[in-house]
């Protein structure tokens, strides 16, 4: 996540277009945002929160998305305000980042679940529709300019829409279906006798069409507005990643690096916010000017600073909770 944001905003165009740059972009593709959304869908399926609490959480995520847009673009917005940059500020204020997708996904899944419960067949049909419908939904081209900023949250190919609802909701739905199935007593997904069969079935299309997946994930404009075929490829990729990670955890759970990565994963939302506040504001000054040495140094610095901020933030929250409970 961090390295792909640095590659996108700090690295020169020549580095981005190099093979190493494309590998960096790929690593920040299927294993990042799609995985985050699938994990969120999984926990939505297993959550016992009330309808009201789920909806409130979804609205909170959307609010945080707007606040993060202001925070990470603060330096750029000041430059636009004083006339240094001639850019459209609304595209940055209403940029569709992943917190908006997360909030809309939580709200949609909560309401849809309330209507149809856990009828597997309906959820699978919905997954397919969401994955493939974006290209056939008409894009607004009328005279009212503000409509495109609302539309960008749901469909279309707007440059400031990084995670439109269609087709990105599909990953949350996939995680939801998985979570829905694994909480039943007769689930077959994680039984030892089925693991290798599932791994083989998922690995075959992943390897056969790997060049397609790599090509899409390493081209940002295509990646953010990808087709349903890439959703299916990423679905197979995530299955393989999940199973391999499961075995990695069994054999290396006490490894210091694995423990650190687990800690980051447990606090991924805070990590996401802090790294964007740092990278977003610095990018205004160093946009696409860094060579490899600079990228590596910035990566170390951003990771270290973000980790410290997340640690302090979590400590502050624990202190506040402890004080309010007394």
In brief:
With 326 residues, this protein is an all-alpha fold. The chain is built from 18 helices and no strands. The chain has helices spanning 2-9, 13-17, 19-27, 33-46, 51-72, 74-81, 90-93, 98-116, 120-132, 147-151, 165-182, 192-208, 210-217, 220-224, 228-252, 256-266, 268-286, 292-325.
- Alpha-beta content class: mainly alpha
* Shape field: globular
Described by its quaternary structure, the protein is single chain
Task: State Rg.
Answer: 20 Å
Q: Beta-strand percentage?
A: under 5%
The number of domains: 2
Mean pLDDT over the full residue set? 91
Query: Low-confidence parts, pLDDT < 50 over ≥5 residues?
Result: none
**Helix segment tally:** 18
| Helical residues, percent | over 70%
User: What is the number of strand segments?
Assistant: 0
What's the SSE pattern?
A: HHHHHHHHHHHHHHHHHH
Largest sheet: none
For the terminal residues, how far apart are their CA atoms? 38 Å
Give your account of this protein's structure.
By secondary structure, the chain is mostly helical. The protein has two domains: 1-20 and 254-326, no CATH class; 31-252, no CATH class. It has helices spanning 2-9, 13-17, 19-27, 33-46, 51-72, 74-81, 90-93, 98-116, 120-132, 147-151, 165-182, 192-208, 210-217, 220-224, 228-252, 256-266, 268-286, 292-325. The longest helix is centred in the C-terminal third of the chain and has 34 residues, at 292-325. The mean pLDDT is 91.
